[in-house]
Structures are given as structure tokens and as C-alpha cells.
């Protein structure tokens, strides 16, 4: 494999700059922001919006089948059934520890910086929050666990429910493992299907710049720069806090495992820019999984940790919830006690999982958290309504970084991280839009 990597590096380096995916996406984001600022009427046209929505739909189209193929292939090739459970337990332990750090950092920064102190926010949009609050109340813990079980297998795939697809994939993988040699044909078919789907992803990624342009142009055109300027303090605090978490907390974890967080971020820069343009971490999920396998993580760990992390390891959402809760309380003149702030930690741990898979999950989980801490804080969400779109980008970026690092850590913890491939890949550039490269290295 090392020889393959060595021969691919010159080809990747020789590619003209204008054909490199992350360069194309970055240019598209800048052009989209410019169009949205200068021609807001044009930017809010349905066809411009459709460019971003269409790209996200193309990615979501392949998420369910790639999770199914990856998880089933990973489990069915494992001889020891206990190993699957061991990986799952390690992943959940890691998720809870790191999520706690994310929540605590949000609380600490919120108490030190106090971004909502002296804020004279308008409550004119309070009624717009009602829908989010109702969704948050409806999503109880019991409903969340029952929702994991699909009504039908076909329905889970059709609706793109990640946890439901994951559950069926795990069960199917165990069943295929139990067949032994009789399941060889099915295993080979699923392995080949996974390569084909990765090929589809590589083709779809070629239109990522178009999707990023449309999404960014529509966002700036619709919300303008006024919403950002009005609450620039909170946005800046949130972005700095998220950066602090990524570079300090995840950086220390990465150093313990034996790699640089800066090199890792450079390795997934394509995915980060796509998420920045689309404000959706799901848009980078398939290519992230493919890149993590190429990085030296075992297929079984990638297949279990990454999809699960998208529901149980939402570091960016956790930071947002604690920081936003304190901001609203400070803006409305409430001084939260130590007990109430401790409640934020405990409640946010649950609500961040309970609202996974719901549209606008970050805002909905905030409503659920505020309702438990102090119902009088819920109307204060109207202050954040205008800028939530901009903050969702930071949430998605942080979630993506957290899940990528989590997969490497669990692979290392399980003793299935290929250090040679890890360092070889972190020191070179690979364009995931290259179909041939994706198929030969995936």
C-alpha cells in the first residue's frame, strides 16, 4: 500500500490548481457571498437556492447505502462478535467524555466573556420560536429510542434515517457473520457495491463548487450582513470557542494518539469547505468515511463510529447550546445559579442526542434545554433567530472535526490504526473528486 501511495502523490501534485477541489469550493464560496451581497434579489431566486439544495440531496442520496455497505462489510469480516460490541462501547465512552468537555468550554467562555451582558435585543420574533419549542417538547427520550427502530427497512432507507439504517446494518452484519462461508457471495457483492457507491460519491463531489456557490449566495442574499453585524459579538465568541475546542481539546487528543490536528484538518480541507458552503455536515459524511479508511482506520471502526457520531458526538452543537443558553439568560437579565448551569450540562447531554436527525436540530435542542433550565428563557431564542444560519456553519464544521478525530482515536484504542498509512496520508494531498484515486485507495 505504501508503494501505491508513493506513486499517487506525484499525480496529485501535478494537478493544475484550478482543478483541485478545495480551491474550486473556496472560490465558489467567495463568489456566492459576493453575489448575495451585491445582488440579493438574484441570490434569493429559487434556482440559485436549488443549486445548494440539489447538491445536498445528491449527497444524502448515497448516505444510506454507503453506511449499509460499510457497516455490513466491516462486521461480516470480523470473526469475533464481541469485537463489534467492544468498538461500540469505546466509541460511546469517548463521545460522552469529549462532549462533556465541549459543554464545559461553552459554559466557561460564556461566564468569562458574558456576550449577552447589556444586550438590548428585540423580542419581535418571539412567535417564530414557537414551532421549534413544540418540536423540542415532542422529541422525548422514549420517542428517540423508539424512533431508532424503523417501521420498515425500506422506509428507513427511503427517508434517510441514519440511526435506523445503522441499526438494520448492524443486525444484517451479525447475521451475515453467522453464515460463515455460505455468506461469502453476499459479502463479496456488498464489498463491490461499496466501491461502486464511492465512485458515485466521487462523481457527485465534482459539482460541490456549484452547490457551495448556490448555498452561500442564497444565505447572504436572504439574511444579509445586517443580522451578522447586530450580533457580531456572540458570533465571534462562538467561533473562537469552537476553534479553542478544536485546536486545544482535539489537538491534545490527537497528540496523544500521535498525529497533528493541523495536518488532519489540512487532510480533510475539502470536506470542511463543502460543509462551510452548505452548512450541512451530512454533505461531507460519505467522503469523510472514505478518507478515514484511506488514512489507516479499519473499515469496521469507520463504519460504526462515524455514523453513530453524527447522532451522539455533536461537539459543535454542545458548545452552541451552553454558550447560547448563557447568552440568552444574560441578555434577558437572568443570573443563572451554579445549580442551573449544572442542569444545562446534564440536560444538554440528553437533548443533543434526542433531536438528532431533525431539521434545525441545533435550534430545537436549544429550545429543549431552555425549557428545562427556566421556561422564561425560551422566548429569548428570538434574539438568535436571525443569525442561527450563520452559527449553524460553525456547528457543522466542529461536528465534522470531532467525528473525524473520534474515528482515528477509537481505531488507535482498538489497536487497528495503521500508523504508517496515517503519517503517509497526512503528509500528502489527495483529491477525493478523482474517481480513479477514490476507487483504488478506498
Automatic annotation (TrEMBL):
It holds the Pfam family SDF. InterPro entries: C4_dicarb_transport, Na-dicarboxylate_symporter, Na-dicarboxylate_symporter_CS, Na:dicarbo_symporter_sf. It is a multi-pass membrane protein. It is found in: Cell inner membrane; Cell membrane. The chain crosses the membrane at residues 20-39, 59-79, 91-113, 162-181, 193-221, 227-253, 319-338, 344-373. GO terms for cellular component: plasma membrane. One of its GO terms (molecular function) is malate:proton symporter activity. GO terms for biological process: L-aspartate transmembrane transport. Gene3D superfamilies: Sodium:dicarboxylate symporter. Keywords: Cell inner membrane, Cell membrane, Membrane, Symport, Transmembrane, Transmembrane helix, Transport. Responsible for the transport of dicarboxylates such as succinate, fumarate, and malate across the membrane. Belongs to the dicarboxylate/amino acid:cation symporter (DAACS) (TC 2.A.23) family. This is C4-dicarboxylate transport protein. The lineage of its organism: Bacteria, Pseudomonadati, Pseudomonadota, Alphaproteobacteria, Hyphomicrobiales. The gene is dctA.
Amino acid at each position: 500500500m505504501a508503494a501505491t501511495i508513493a506513486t499517487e502523490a506525484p499525480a496529485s501534485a501535478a494537478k493544475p490548481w484550478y482543478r483541485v477541489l478545495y480551491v474550486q469550493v473556496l472560490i465558489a464560496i467567495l463568489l456566492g457571498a459576493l453575489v448575495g451581497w451585491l445582488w440579493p434579489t438574484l441570490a434569493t431566486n429559487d434556482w440559485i437556492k436549488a443549486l445548494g439544495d440539489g447538491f445536498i440531496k445528491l449527497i444524502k442520496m448515497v448516505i444510506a447505502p454507503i453506511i449499509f455497505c460499510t457497516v455490513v462489510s466491516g462486521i461480516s469480516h470480523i470473526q469475533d462478535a464481541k469485537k463489534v460490541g467492544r468498538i461500540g462501547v469505546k466509541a460511546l465512552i469517548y463521545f460522552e467524555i469529549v462532549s462533556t468537555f465541549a459543554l464545559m468550554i461553552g459554559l466557561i467562555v460564556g461566564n468569562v466573556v458574558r456576550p449577552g451582558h447589556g444586550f438590548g435585543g428585540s423580542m419581535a420574533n418571539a412567535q417564530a420560536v414557537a414551532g421549534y419549542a413544540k418540536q423540542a417538547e415532542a422529541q422525548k427520550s422514549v420517542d428517540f429510542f423508539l424512533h431508532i427502530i424503523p417501521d420498515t427497512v425500506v422506509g428507513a432507507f427511503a427517508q434517510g434515517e441514519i440511526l435506523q439504517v445503522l441499526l438494520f446494518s448492524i443486525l444484517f452484519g451479525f447475521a451475515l457473520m453467522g453464515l460463515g462461508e455460505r455468506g461469502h457471495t453476499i459479502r463479496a457483492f456488498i464489498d463491490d457495491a461499496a466501491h461502486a457507491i464511492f465512485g458515485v460519491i466521487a462523481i457527485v463531489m465534482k459539482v460541490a463548487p456549484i452547490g457551495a456557490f448556490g448555498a452561500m449566495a442564497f444565505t447572504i442574499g436572504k439574511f444579509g450582513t445586517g443580522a451578522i453585524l447586530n450580533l457580531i459579538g456572540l458570533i465571534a465568541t462562538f467561533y473562537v470557542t469552537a476553534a479553542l475546542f478544536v485546536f486545544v481539546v482535539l489537538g491534545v487528543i490527537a497528540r496523544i494518539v500521535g498525529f497533528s490536528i493541523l495536518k488532519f484538518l489540512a487532510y480533510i480541507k475539502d470536506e470542511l469547505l463543502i460543509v462551510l458552503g452548505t452548512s450541512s455536515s451530512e454533505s461531507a459524511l460519505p467522503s469523510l468515511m472514505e478518507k478515514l479508511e484511506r488514512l489507516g482506520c479499519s473499515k469496521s471502526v469507520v463504519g460504526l463510529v462515524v455514523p453513530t457520531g453524527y447522532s451522539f458526538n455533536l461537539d459543535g452543537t454542545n458548545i452552541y447550546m451552553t454558550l447560547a443558553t448563557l447568552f440568552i439568560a444574560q441578555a434577558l437579565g437572568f443570573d443563572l445559579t451554579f445549580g442551573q448551569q449544572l442542569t444545562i450540562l446534564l440536560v444538554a447531554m440528553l437533548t443533543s442526542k434526542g433531536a438528532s436527525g431533525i431539521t434545525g436540530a441545533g435550534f430545537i435542542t436549544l429550545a429543549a434545554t431552555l425549557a428545562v433550565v427556566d421556561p422564561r428563557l425560551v422566548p429569548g431564542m428570538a434574539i438568535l433567530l436571525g443569525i442561527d444560519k450563520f452559527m449553524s456553519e460553525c456547528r457543522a464544521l466542529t461536528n465534522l472535526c470531532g467525528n473525524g478525530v473520534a474515528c482515528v482515536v477509537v481505531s488507535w484504542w482498538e489497536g487497528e490504526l495503521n500508523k504508517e498509512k496515517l503519517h503517509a496520508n497526512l503528509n500528502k494531498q489527495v483529491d477525493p473528486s478523482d474517481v480513479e484515486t477514490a476507487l483504488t485507495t478506498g
